[in-house]
Structures are given as C-alpha cells and as structure tokens.
C-alpha cells in the first residue's frame, strides 16, 4: 500500500511537540509492515527537500509564511498537495490513502476529498477545546475549531489517540461512531536504554544528588496545568525542603509562572529550562528525576507518561483524559485530581516511600515495552486503511 502522511512536524523536519514522535515512529512501523510511506512535512532551515530515512520517504516542502497562522497552515496544506501530486506524477502511481495529522493538515485532506474523491483519514492528537483548557474562545480559536470540524466531517475515518479523546471529538464535532477509531500512541523504549550518572545531569541544573526531584515535560499552557504543579510546591517543601521541581518546556505561561514562583517563595526550588534542544538531554532528565508529574486539565493521550515509564520512572497524573486509561493507581504511578492539594498529596506519597516509587517505575517500564508498541499501533492503523471503500 502506498501511504502519504501530511504532518506539520516530524523528528526529521521541524519537531515541536509529541506529534513529531508519533508521525515518525508510525511511519517507520508502517514501512516495516511492507508499505511504501511518504511523509510530507515542512522544510526547516538548512534541510534538504527530500531524504530517505529508516525506509521512509521524507518530503520537506517549502511553505509561504503568513502573519495569520490559520492562513499559513492553509498555505502549508496547498504545498503538501502540490508536492504529493508531483511525486505521484514522477513515480507514475497514485497514493492509496492520504493520512493527515491534526487540524493543521485538515485543509489538505479536505481539498483532496472535495476535488479528487481521495481516500483520506485524519488523526487528531487533541482538539482546540482541549488545547484551550476545556474552553471555547472566539477569534482565531473559533476559526481553528471550524477547520478541525470540517476535517472530521470530510475524512473517511477519524482516529483519536485515546478513548477520552474519542469522546471529546464526538461531543465537540458530532462525529458518528461508524467513522471514529482509537489507536493509542506507542513508545520505543530502546531510546531510553543506557547508563547515565544522574548526579552529573542534576548538577548541571543546580540540583543536588539526593534532592527529591519532580519533572514536568510539556508546553507551559493552561491545558497542561503547570500552574497546578507550581501551587503544590510549598506543600511539598514543607515535607522535603530540599525538593526540586523542573519544568522542561516553554509556552505563554512561563513569565507568569516565574512571577508566581517568586510570590510563593519557592523560586529556589524550581527550574525553568525552556524547550530542550536535544532528545538526549531530555532523556537524561527523565532518567535523573524521581517522579514525572502530568498535572493536565486536559490530556488527550499523555505520551509523557510512556516516556517516563520507558525511563523507569513512576508518574503522578490527573484524572483528565488519556493518562487515567493507562495508569493503574499505586502500580505504575499515582492518580490525583487536578488541584494543587491532590497533586501535593501524590508527590509527598512518592517521596515518603522511594522503594515503592522505584517499584512503580519498574512496572511502568514493563507496561510501556509490552503494552504500547508502535508495531501494534501500526497494525491497527493498517486495519483502518483496509476498511476504506474503493
């Protein structure tokens, strides 16, 4: 089967968030199943327009930038469609399916469905409602919802990365069960193998070798709940004054969070690292932490949970969305409510029994390795492709 992916990001173009890992790993897993996979994505500075990586064809497409972001994404989709058709013409064969990822690529699959009657799918990794912290806003957000809605309505199948996200898509866009499918993310645990000295990694961020350390990985946005974790810090410090909380990620809330840390008198105990420049640096952070906290108000899947488990770390998650479908409370981590008091309680539980915390991390590694394989996810996705008529 000849498969075309449309993706705003990948690990081999311009990685931004977790969608990059999904696109890259899923494409490689489908290729291992014998399919010819082409990824059409954005061209980054200094990158070539074509590269063959892990058996997958990467087409990095130039796009016309625009001050209006929704217009820019439409320009991107036009570029993907153009270069995909150029590829088909050059190879003398059409793609069997075109698979877009997130609202950013929705206009591309809508164009192909409306103009050419192509077989198209859309995987949503989140919704605009969820990204806005479970709120509806006007302006650009309203326009994004319209694009997202059109994509779900015109796609032959809509894939969500968790059962919770399936429910959210149904509620927001009235997608019928007949076209909605769930395929959870996978994880390549081998990326997290290898020995490091945690004390060296910690020292580079001004953290002592024995300081109890919490790691947050993700965008600093209302959806991801970094403020809930920050508000829990005073309570954690009351129990362990040497505790540290590391925020790895960037976003519009960063300035407000730094200001609030000063107000709470906990600035000495928190580290704001911004976006991590390399995959290796982030993996070392995972392996150096004692616990990974996912305090989201809305979490469509929670790939951070799998990354934490791959590093052998327990997690503290909230009850909102995908993570609660994965985490068995007190087995691979703790499940809390999305408020500072509950998150504080869970972190103190971790710090009061480190042997049990390590045991939970070990169970998480096993669960990630055997329960969340990209090869399983690719087989499920292939099955959905084969459902399509035509």
Describe the structure.
It is a single chain. The strands form two sheets. The protein has an eight-stranded mixed β-sheet, sandwiched between helices. The chain has a six-stranded parallel β-sheet with strand order 11-10-9-12-13-14, sandwiched between helices. It folds into two domains: 2-186 and 373-387, Glycogen Phosphorylase B (Rossmann fold, 3-Layer(aba) Sandwich); 189-371, 3-Layer(aba) Sandwich (Rossmann fold). It has helices at residues 19-32, 69-91, 106-116, 128-131, 140-154, 163-173, 198-203, 226-239, 254-264, 279-288, 303-310, 323-326, 340-352, 354-371, 374-387, and strands spanning 2-6, 36-42, 50-53, 56-61, 97-101, 120-124, 157-160, 180-182, 213-217, 244-248, 270-274, 291-294, 315-318, 333-336. With 390 residues, it is an alpha/beta fold. A hairpin with a 2-residue loop joins strand 3 (50-53) and strand 4 (56-61). The chain contains 15 helices and 14 strands. The model has no long low-confidence stretch (mean pLDDT 95).
Low-confidence stretches: none
Give Rg in angstroms. Answer: 21 Å
The name of the CATH architecture of the largest domain is 3-Layer(aba) Sandwich
- Secondary-structure element sequence? EHEEEHEHEHHEHEHEHEHEHEHEHEHHH
Q: What composes the largest sheet?
A: 8 strands, mixed
CATH superfamily of the largest domain: Glycogen Phosphorylase B
Residues in β-strands, percent? 15-25%
Average pLDDT? 95
Classify the secondary structure makeup into a structural class: alpha/beta
Distance between the termini: 13 Å
Number of discrete helical segments: 15
Bin the helical content. Answer: 40-55%
Q: What count of domains describes the coordinates?
A: 2
Shape: globular
- The CATH first-level class of the largest domain comes to Alpha Beta
- As laid out across the biggest beta sheet, the strand order is 3-4-2-1-5-6-7-8
CATH topology name of the largest domain: Rossmann fold
Number of E strands: 14
